[in-house]
Amino acid sequence: MNNLLLLSNSTNAGMGYLEHAWQAVLPALDGVTELVFVPYSLADHDAYTQKVREAFAPHGITVKGVHEDGDPVATVRQAQAIFVGGGNTFRLLDRLKQERLIVELHNHVAAGKLYMGASAGTNVAAPTIRTTNDMPIIFPEGFDALGLVPFQINCHYLDADPNSTHAGETRELRLTEFHEENTTPVVAIREGVWIRVHGGVTEIGGAAVNTQYGPALLFTPGEAPREISGVLG
């Protein structure tokens, strides 16, 4: 069964890296001593890996960059757990395909080992990256992603500010437009929220930064978006 922890974001405003999510991250990594980090969504892989290494060190978990040994396929095959970091989703998916890691990540998850993502790393766990917020700074030869969950994901979901003078598209409108051309449901998770898949159960966890709202919204074709929380049926 899939073992996933999919974070909307890695940093809440005014907090340290993963500080808002350790209560979910550490139990998910129970028994893991070395984490393989995938830094491909940012340009500087070494600096990104070092940042993550420093965050996990106080918790007794060592971090190895998937790029550091020069053989990403072998590194993923040997990994106890994988963490795919945030950044640009198009660049991430392009590099995953270049390094032939799509099948390897599927095999990793099929073996019951943890896949953890944040932002872009969460986006690529969906069937496609069509609901990312990122600019297509590179074309990854198609938008099909890992498909580890049966729904699309929109990270960093922003609710429209009723006091704003901005007259452009809202996030809600953009996701509604997605369903003018597609039928796959979309789970939109606000800042501070994550999706946990374990033991055949999919659950929304964490707490939205804006406490006026719940953790997530479900968008389905032809219906108004619906607030969701807890175990997804």
Considering DSSP H and I runs of 4 or more, what fraction of the residues is helical? 10-25%
Give the CA-CA distance, first to last residue.
Answer: 17 Å
Anisotropy-based shape: globular
- Number of helical runs? 7
Average pLDDT over all residues: 96
Low confidence ranges: none
Q: Largest beta sheet, briefly?
A: 8 strands, mixed
For the secondary structure, the number of strands is 12
Multimeric status of the protein: single chain
**Topology pattern, helix = H, strand = E:** EHEHEHEHHEHEHEEEEEE
SSE class:
alpha/beta
Q: Proportion of β residues? A: 15-25%
- Rg, Å, rounded: 17 Å
Q: Widest sheet: strand order? A: 3-2-4-5-1-8-9-12
Briefly summarize what is shown.
The chain has 233 residues and is an alpha/beta fold. It has 7 helices and 12 strands.
